[in-house]
Please model this.
Amino acid sequence: MERRDLLLVWETMLTERDYRTLKTQLADANEVDVAEFMAELPPDKTVLVFRMLPKEMASDVFANLEPEDQQLIISSATDREVSELVEDLNVDDAVDMLEELPASVVKRVLKTARPDTRKLINQFLNYPDSSVGSIMTAEFIDLRKSMTVSEAITRIRRSGDESESIYTCYVIDSRRVLEGVVTLRELLVAEDDTIVEELMETDLITALTTEDQEEAVNRMMKYDFISLPVVDQEHRLVGIVTVDDVMDVMEEEATEDFEKMAAMAPSEKPYLKTSVFSLAKNRIVWLLVLMVSSMVTGGILGKYEAAFAAVPLLVTFIPMLTDTGGNAGSQSSTMIIRGMAVGEIEMGDFLRVLWKELRVSILVGVILSAVNFVRLQIQYPGNTMVSFTVAGAMLVTVVMAKTIGSMLPILAKRLHVDPTIMAAPLITTIVDAVSLVVYFTLAQRLLGL
Amino acid sequence: MERRDLLLVWETMLTERDYRTLKTQLADANEVDVAEFMAELPPDKTVLVFRMLPKEMASDVFANLEPEDQQLIISSATDREVSELVEDLNVDDAVDMLEELPASVVKRVLKTARPDTRKLINQFLNYPDSSVGSIMTAEFIDLRKSMTVSEAITRIRRSGDESESIYTCYVIDSRRVLEGVVTLRELLVAEDDTIVEELMETDLITALTTEDQEEAVNRMMKYDFISLPVVDQEHRLVGIVTVDDVMDVMEEEATEDFEKMAAMAPSEKPYLKTSVFSLAKNRIVWLLVLMVSSMVTGGILGKYEAAFAAVPLLVTFIPMLTDTGGNAGSQSSTMIIRGMAVGEIEMGDFLRVLWKELRVSILVGVILSAVNFVRLQIQYPGNTMVSFTVAGAMLVTVVMAKTIGSMLPILAKRLHVDPTIMAAPLITTIVDAVSLVVYFTLAQRLLGL
Model:
């Protein structure tokens, strides 16, 4: 059965009040599907369905719900129920929820939580946005290096229910300083009486709570880990980052880069859930900035009024020149911005990139220039000087566009400015202005205007 | 110690021929770091270092090497060594390697491989590029539903060494049809004599070998899995997709989308490793196509020569109009293309998107228009009709740009064309042409040209 059909079957059961069958089916279902089902129900039904779920499943479904539905359920629950729910949630899911809920609800949740949970939640709420601390979770297996394999496995079997990731275990000393890492696989294939210290990896790859989350993502990808230990400045283990959170971060960061590179402020929510007003607000600022910049380009154009009044044909090549320059430049800036985002290109590669782009741009520029020259000679025979002007301006524009397009993102990073703002729209505006100056200067020289 | 320093220390040991210490250190190191170290060595040293590695580590390091280094090591090894290496590699890593090596080397590798390995490799080599089959691996734990928990754990402990992912186990029947899934965590927390059938999840979430790899990525992200079972048409289990491969696919697909959206053919290799010639080849085709399209725009402009000969001031607003139109359009197309890539926006959302973009564009368009009107009234007092022309053209351009920008990617998908080609550069070219027609038509009417 298609998963989509499953939701329809459940909906029918709900409409027909066949609660018993629905309850049985939901108990066996995947929590993500149940959450998707609940998201489409009216408020009263959402609460009804949530109360049907077996206790051990409720918090998993809850973690996957939309903030509005989470709020609904909390409002309809007793203090005791809220407290139990929060205890069952992983700390990172509880924190994600609290960040979306109105202050009054947050207050109630924290009031009902157990003191140690409350302390942990408050600590996690304090990590800055986009830091490793903000995406880590506090549930993990910690072992001591003196344990035997069978003691370790017993400990894992006991706490396995609670830990978000039991497959990588962390060995700490009495002050919680991280000493080693051992995978469950290594424990399982070892002899029962082997000491953990003999098995553990001591070449530790970690992240700091204060590091940028992108660093943790790149490190996990490099080493193919399914969880990464997070330590504080004293190298004490405070949490782990798990691969599912890392994938979410990867998707978010890529989406953010797409948005910023298309001259928008990044949005908090998915497109269909963002209001018209927010969408407009995210877009208008850059549109205004770029509009004002292209007024400058218009001003430059105004200086050459005499030239195009004399040879109006010149005007008809402007879109081709500026568009091609913009495209050539944004090709380069995109390659470099993406290369820096995935950690391939670093600031030290400045000269290597420049030399590469210079050669690419000459190759590409000569071809585009030649095509133009031939075309103009055929279309406007006798106007050889116009052909030279356009072809020459094209070559210079492409070389300059690619050089600017590749250098500005690296310079931005060096100046600690987000390189993505050097993407297509800004590069296009800059290249527009420069290419028009080149074009009309050439025209004035070659055509004697 | 910073990981970068580690590589320097090893390099010094190598130069000083302190092979004994180096060998000890490498044996304890992370295989990804060792591969990174080897990538920077001259060919003879690469082979030397590889021979220092303990046998159980060699294949892990090998899987992380660049194709050139892999070829080097294979060329310097005996048939027997090659055969052992290939047996130690996971099938997906062996296939990745073979796809990059020259035909003669592939032939030698396949000749020395054991018959069943050869058969498996050939099967994997046949899955089409970007299909789920092409990223899956054949190493996984399969259980029978009649087993007890302790039998299952014993089986896992025995085969744990070989399987890429032992943390999710797959229950199959005698014909290898997938019947259930059980995690190692569930097995570990259960009683020893519980039957696997009682524990296993039967609500199966799978991928087909022939599906697009992006589908598998989205499914794993949705359900937060660390591995996804891959079945054939008869629902027989043929492999699994693991989370580390999925992260690589996510990064590759996002990079590809960035490249395509900036009007480039996607590249096979990272930027710094791509030759100047390949880079130029990837970029020139779209630059030519778009250049020819903007010649059309130039042609349109030519039709209005009389208008701008009469009022040359009109020309100076062209860059602002076309740039703003292009930016407004690419904002919309980027949002929609990304929304479709992450599975948020579907073809059924066509009207919802249209209605949303229409409202956003009117909001944004009115603001940009008003700013322009006021500015023109101040800058060119008395030219009220020119102000009306520019402001009117701006509003129409923005509304039209956003409508076109949001609709074309969805239409492209409906026509089974890659929506990313409807990104900024093509949208800009289309919007350029339309906005110029609107602008000059308005100018002719309002200014009576």
